[in-house]
Write a structure and sequence with these properties.
By secondary structure, this protein is mostly beta strands. Helix content is 5%, strand content 39%. The strands form nine sheets. It has a five-stranded mixed beta sheet, with no helix packed on it. The chain has a four-stranded mixed beta sheet with strand order 2-1-6-4, with no helix packed on it. A hairpin with a 2-residue loop joins strand 9 and strand 10.
């Protein structure tokens, strides 16, 4: 039995050791009693080639390094680029085009990205073609005879010679693209497949303005070809304009007239002051749906980008709120009390039952005039629109009719006759 226990204990220790190795733990990760101790830490180093690629076409590779170990970057397979020569590695992407702070090894304390840095190839036959003023583009691709576009991170490679364009919008900054092109290369400008940002249009009859370091200049349509000169050159997109649209105002049961308003994308403008009126209602603002009572825009509100489509029509409908007013009851010679009554324009309501009294008189109804002898409204009549003015007070005066009676004369033992009175 003792030997059996020793065998079982040995088996447990061997099993723990196997599990520790399978989980990537170092020696001593489990002690003889099966208690886990701290695991070894590993960090991931990502080698990034923002230009060019490795032989397998990839633009990044990962290497796992144990904490405390040093990765020799010089021993790593170096990527290649057709227009640049490899200079070394850096932990800053800003050094990709301007090699600096290069490192030949790294001892990581966390996961890191290391970027391949590139020097310009001394090629007298290649010159810079700079595409300026790309802020009005949202995305696109550039293809020029398989040449790389080296001003990342504005472009991300998706195929040989083709780069996916992504604009970085920051105040006052206009991103540019730099392409190294051999002199005499014919470039199809239609291969510059840019998408204009929302709210803008690029005229089909426009394209690119060219100028060189020698102050030569010219204009090219988007469908033209451009021959690279033996000098640095620049192309600037022209004919990109902000879209305009129209704002129409609708009275929405009101009356009056208002002219439409022309607005330009990305330009804030105040809405035209409301000129519509509606009896019994107060203007609240504008909405984009005729049936909506929710105000989207206030009167004369400053608005921008109500539409991004060129020549589009935006319809704004007036929002109206029915005016409220108060009805006060006046005893007009009678006595008693009655509470005021709140009413809303275009909403019928029953007048409060008369609670006034007047000795010798009979209540006839209500009038808006204190000296009226005939009632305009009967007791508890259903009424509406007694006033069209917001917060107005309407006073209803009780109309009284003096009671009549007959006086009869009795001779009381005498003789003769007298008419009743």
């Amino acid at each position: 039995m003792k030997n059996s226990k020793k065998t079982k204990g040995l088996f447990r220790r061997v099993l723990c050791s196997v599990l520790a190795l399978a989980m990537g733990l170092t020696c001593g990760a489990f002690n003889g009693f099966g208690t886990a101790s701290a695991a070894t830490t590993y960090y991931t180093i990502t080698l990034v080639s923002t230009m060019g690629s490795w032989a397998d076409g990839s633009t990044s590779k990962t290497v796992t390094v144990k904490e405390g170990d040093t990765l020799d970057l010089e021993s790593q397979f170096i990527p290649s680029c057709s227009t640049r020569s490899f200079a070394g590695w850096s932990t800053s992407i800003s050094n990709v085009m301007s090699p600096g702070n290069l490192i030949d090894s790294i001892t990581p304390t966390s996961d890191k990205c290391v970027y391949a840095c590139w020097d310009t190839i001394d090629d007298e036959d290649s010159y810079q073609l700079v595409l300026y003023g790309l802020k009005k583009f949202s995305d696109g691709t550039i293809t020029i005879n398989g040449h790389d576009v080296p001003n990342l991170p504005f472009f991300q490679k998706i195929a040989d010679g083709t780069y996916d364009y992504r604009v970085y919008y920051s105040s006052g900054y206009t991103p540019n693209a730099v392409v190294y092109v051999p002199a005499g290369t014919t470039i199809k400008l239609s291969d510059f497949s840019f998408t204009v940002s929302e709210g803008y249009s690029w005229s089909s009859s426009k394209g690119w303005q060219y100028y060189s370091t020698g102050r030569e200049s010219g204009y090219y349509k988007k469908t033209d070809t451009f021959t690279m000169p033996s000098k640095n050159a620049n192309l600037i997109p022209y004919g990109i304009t902000a879209n305009f649209y129209y704002v129409y105002y609708y009275a929405n049961s009101g009356s009056g007239s208002m002219s439409y308003q022309t607005m330009t994308y990305d330009t804030a403008e105040k809405l035209t002051a409301n000129a519509y009126t509606r009896t019994g209602y107060t203007f609240q603002g504008w909405t984009t749906a005729s049936s909506s009572s929710a105000v989207t825009y206030a009167d004369q509100e400053s608005v921008v980008n109500l539409s991004s489509k060129s020549g589009d029509t935006v319809r704004l409908y007036a929002v109206w709120k029915a005016n409220s007013y108060t009805v006060k009851y006046n005893a007009n010679g009678g006595s008693g009390t009655m509470l005021d009554m709140a009413m809303t324009y275009d909403t019928a309501a029953t007048l409060t039952a008369n609670a006034f009294s007047r000795k010798g008189y009979t209540f006839q109804g209500w009038s808006t005039k204190a000296d009226a002898t005939e009632a305009t409204y009967t007791d508890q009549a259903s009424v509406k629109n007694l006033s069209s003015t917001s917060d107005d007070v309407v006073t209803l005066y009780a109309v009284w009719d003096a009671n009549t009676y007959t006086v009869k004369y009795n001779a009381n033992g005498g003789s003769g006759s007298m008419s009743n009175k």
